[in-house]
Amino acid sequence: MTKNNKISVRQIFIMFIVITLSPTIRVFPTSCAQFGKTAAWVGPIIATACLVLLTCVLTAIFKSGKFRDLGDVFEKLTGKVVSKVLLTLYLLWATLLFLLYIRYYAERPMSTIFPYVNIRYFIVSMMILVFIAAHGRLEAFARLAEIAFIIFIVTFLIFFVFLIPTIKPRNMLPVTYLDAFPALKSAFPVVSIFGYLTPFFFLGAQISDKEKLFLKSKKLVIFLFIISTMTVVCVVGSLGYRTTGRMPMPFFSAMKLVNVLQSFDRLETAVLAIWVVADFILIVAFALIIVNILKSLFRVTEPKHYATPVVFLGYIGGIYLAVGRFELEAYSSSILCYTLNTVFGFGVPLALLGIGKLRKLL
Amino acid sequence: MAELIIVFLALIILSARDMKKLADSGLMFELATYVLLTAAVITLGSIYMLNPEQTSIIRYVLNVFHVSE
Description:
- The complex is a heterodimer.
- Chain A is mostly helical.
- Chain A is 73% helix and 0% strand.
- Chain A has a single domain, classed as Amino acid/polyamine transporter I.
- Chain A has helices spanning 9-26, 28-36, 42-62, 70-78, 80-112, 119-135, 138-163, 180-194, 213-239, 241-246, 250-255, 268-298, 307-320, 325-332, 335-358.
- Chain B is 78% helix and 0% strand.
- Chain B is elongated.
- The A-B interface holds A 96, 99, 120, 131, 294, 298, 300-302, 305-306, 308-309, 312-313, 315-317, 319-323, 326-328, 330-331, 334-336 and B 3, 7, 10-11, 14-15, 18, 21-22, 25, 27, 29-30, 33-34, 37-38, 40-41, 44-45, 48-49, 52, 56-59, 61-62, 65, 67, 69.
């Protein structure tokens, strides 16, 4: 697993799957239903194909072993000036996502169980944990993600098993060639979330076998494909695309349908609990990514200390990011958000691969 | 105002610890960058905490890209 205080590419991929779970629950069912209608479930399938392509691109970039991390790739392939511009853009993008997920985390207890509590209490409690984790060892954090991953598998399995009987095929069929364009549109939000794999390679110096990304991630890509597709299938199949597309949290509404022998229900509370863990891992991951982008941008050797201002930025920015939940959703469901994620997650690595091949550096 | 003072006091105390470590290690460029980043956070925090009525960060981003809700 770990080698010379480094983490393996498998652990990075597990971390990536865990951080996609929070957006999977929140974004996938609603956006896929809105765009794809009965073909909503095709979106994650198309998005997985794009993810496989991304792993191939990243493997092609790193297999030569010439590059330490993504910042190093920028510099060696595009030159100093362009690489600084790219790093600054990635820094802004990662910071926006960091603040967005802090605020989303804090809004959730406020909109469910603690409506009259000041949002600052939730943000402070999270930022204290983020501060500790961001100053700690990456290997320990990767192991936490692995444990969380197992808990998520079990929870999702229970969810799928109990929800399968409530799925109505008429909510997802028929799908014909006329649904090709809606299916492609429904893949867009999923693709934009899968693009979060790319910024993990700013931690590249701490990843031991990144040149084997494609080989080591095969099983995990299949797992992510099953999770994302089944989430959409279960929710849209149970509630229908019209209802799902209009609900803020269709995943929870679908979970409320689970009732075994009139004695086993209210599974949504378990999901709420693991969702907080997923948010913690997501926020810490973005904090580490920001710190490593700063390392590449300023060419510093001891980046860990930079976690302190980043955490404080998280507190201040988390509060002043948006006035309320509606503003958060206005951004995260906008084409702008999907486009930025897709450009930084997929577009830039593809362009780098092209540049590298043209300049014969790859 | 009280929140601003508490947040910045906490930031200064924790930053001082990091700065001491960086100075002891002789990493002067890292120290200068650290001070720059901390100053940027303090400036941003002051702008927002002293004037919370102003445009939220998301509204600002959406306006920059001309995105309507």
